[in-house]
Amino acid sequence: MDILIPLLAIVGGLLAASSLIAQKSQDAGQALKKLSPYQGIIGVILLVLGLYYFLFHSLPHLGAMMKYTAGLFGLIMQILMILVGFILSYNLLSDKLLSKNQTAQEKGAQAAKKLISIQIPLGLALAVCAFIVLIL
């Protein structure tokens, strides 16, 4: 896996947990606040890359990935990328894609509501997992 994927995952995870980080460190909170206008774009990129790597790299080699620590953390990172990417990009996606279909908009809102309640833990988990993938 490219080095850019875990780095992007770390940024996305920290962005998802930015409210908690801002409480702990004002400087880090201000730095993450500068990224917030790009939250939707970062979320779409995380979502697309997470789905791509999960579907085309992990699923065909699932057995081998489960045997090794690096593969297991890579798999977990991809799943977290999909979830955090959906959360971060939900507003952008609902405006562009779901606005024409009422049923899809309602189902998307329900899924987003469930995930937003665990956004901070998911973001922290993604950042930590991506860091581990980076060093393994």
Automatic annotation (TrEMBL):
TM stretches of this protein: 38-56, 68-90, 116-135
Keywords: Membrane, Transmembrane, Transmembrane helix
UniProt-recorded name of the protein: DUF350 domain-containing protein
Taxonomic source organism: Kangiella marina
